[in-house]
Amino acid sequence: QLQLVESGGGLVQPGGSLRLSCAASGYSLDYYGIGWFRQAPGKEREGVACTSSNGISTEYADSVKGRFTISRDNAKSMVYLQMNSLKPEDTAVYYCAAAPKIWGGLGGDEYRFWGQGTQVTVSS
Asked: How much is the average pLDDT of 102-111?
């Protein structure tokens, strides 16, 4: 059973940066598409970024394009989300998720394994 644990969330001022990490255990990440999702109070879950199983292909939500970067290191079973130029509207719980296929996309339905989430708060 693949397990995912996020870390790196916290409180940051607008314009600041955070790097989220997602540590996988229980199975190799080589065969999983990975996505980062977020959910703010009272809002639907939103796909933020995703990457193919080999890390070559990526996709971003329009709301974060140019500010967020997803990356992965399969040898270390780690996935990252670098978030720059953060805005108050980026405040949410962020989740990493794994789809048992090359590509999971931003919709969320393809993902079978989810982490517990890490809180990101952007506020002055």
From this structure: 95
Structure tokens, 29:
């990440």
- Are 104 and 35 a contacting pair, CB within 8 Å? yes
d(CA 70, CA 51): 7
Q: Is 86 helix (H, G, I), strand (E, B) or coil?
A: coil
CA distance 15 to 102: 33
Instruction: Tell me the sheet residues that pair with 118.
Output: 94
For residue range 9-49, list pLDDT tens digits in order.
999 999 999 999 999 999 889 999 999 999 999 999 999 99
Place of tokens 């002055």: 124
Tokens 């229980």 belong to 26
Q: What tokens were used for 116?
A: 């517990």
Q: What's the pLDDT score for residue 119? A: 98
Nearest to 36 by CA among 61, 73, 1, 62: 61
Distance (Å, whole) CA 48 – CA 70 = 9
The whole-angstrom distance between residue 52's C-alpha and the CA centroid of its chain comes to 13
